[in-house]
Amino acid sequence: MRSARGTPSHNKKSLLNIYGRLSCSPTNGKHLNFCTDFEKSIVINSFKRRGWKQVMPDEDWHLYWANTVNCRSIFSLECGLRLGENQLINHFPNHYELVRKDLLVKNIKRYRKELEKDSNPLAEKTEVKLPSGQVITRYLYLDFIPVTFVLPSDYNMFVEEYRKFPQTTWILKPCGKSQGAGIFLINKLSKLKKWSRESKKYLQHHLTSKDTYVISRYIDNPLLIGGKKFDLRIYVLVTSFRPLKAYMFRNGFCRFCTMKYDTSVTELDNMYVHLTNVSVQKHGSEYNSQHGGKLGIHNLKLYLEGTRGREVTNRLFENIQWLIVHSLKAVAHVMSNDRHCFECYGYDIIIDDNLKPWLIEVNASPSMTATTVNDRILKYKLLDNLLSVVLPPGGIPDARWNKTPSAEALGDFQILIDEDSMYKGEMELAQRDKGARKN
Ligand SMILES: Nc1ncnc2c1ncn2[C@@H]1O[C@H](COP(=O)(O)OP(=O)(O)OP(=O)(O)O)[C@@H](O)[C@H]1O
Prior knowledge:
Layout: H1 12-19, E1 33-36, H2 41-48, E2 53-54, E3 63-65, H3 68-74, E4 88-89, H4 96-99, H5 101-117, E5 125-129, E6 135-139, E7 148-151, H6 155-164, E8 170-174, E9 184-186, H7 189-199, E10 213-217, E11 224-225, E12 228-241, E13 244-249, E14 253-256, H8 271-274, H9 278-281, E15 294-296, H10 297-308, H11 310-332, E16 343-351, E17 357-363, H12 373-390, H13 407-410, E18 413-418, H14 419-438
Parallel strand pairs: 1-2, 1-3, 3-4
Antiparallel strand pairs: 5-6, 7-10, 8-9, 8-10, 11-12, 12-13, 12-14, 12-16, 13-18, 14-15, 16-17
Helix pairs in contact: 2-12, 5-11, 10-11
The structure holds adenosine-5'-triphosphate.
């Protein structure tokens, strides 16, 4: 039987063979087994350091660090597998609701509309005057994704928006790709039409989800440091969507472009200026492999406190947490909340020069490859802390656990939201109120 390790995907039949007869025996205080699809030393060593043994997907495992394709197959109807109480896996079955570019946008738009329909104050709108003099209406609290349309389905809506704001630059991104592949910027509708004709893409009828694109307003006023654009990579661990339990790793980092930011039309195609992906920048002649174009979030905070002041810096970081929590709430009701699952998401955020954070995208399998020494230290810590959060106090996976880690187990994770304890807190307050009224 072929192992799932190191193979990117399986066909349904072989998965049925591999997983159909799988169950994990009770641990009884014996050794714990992990299995992974990645040949990454950081992943493998993080388990081995805890004394766990690596096994194949068709053997007894307690925790599977899977790729998204294999995880989806495990939960597919054809597979018919029921995970045991001592088995955990690192993705939710339909994580794509949050991590696919088009679905993220659809879910956030729907969430805002629902709040609006319920007259929820969170959905309050406000009028904003643009530098061009035009006045637009936008959400006061929930305006954290750039205006985005899905192509080809929203093409007419996009053209309407384009005509209203003809000076805007747009960024086109394929939904089925990553690492900057297939991304380009446009500032003219004619360029989009030309691309469509040449690639015979979005106006064709036989489309697959791989051919879906999102077109987003390009954030053309990013905050620059040393004249260069950067984005933030923040790790967010979710252990449950209903109730929502999410944690943010304190040690995120900035990823810088290697070339100075330049909005001139001639530089529109220069990806070393506009895309912050390490996978793009590492091919640039200015790439520095010592620091890998990365700067720790603590240093960014210090820099901002020094240049912009403590108050606005704190507000920026509060707004980042706000946008993460609301992006998760936007998908919480569509997620299949399997209690064997947890997921570590890589959030990509751009800060503009008004210190407003924008959510660019969410990744389900943030890279566990280290590009520098600091990166290696950070990622080891991330995985070590993550395991402490997802495992109950005895260290043995248990899907029945109430997923309430102790303060020490959190390590460098901080609680973003725990609806369970919020609910309990509210109940306690209500009880106390009732008691006070009785007295
Ligand atoms: N709306 C935007 N405004 C400004 N820059 C953007 C915008 N969208 C994307 N970018 C830039 O393009 C880069 C790649 O975009 P994005 O992360 O969405 O695509 P990706 O290829 O899927 O990347 P990943 O490998 O992280 O999945 C971002 O890191 C950012 O630097």
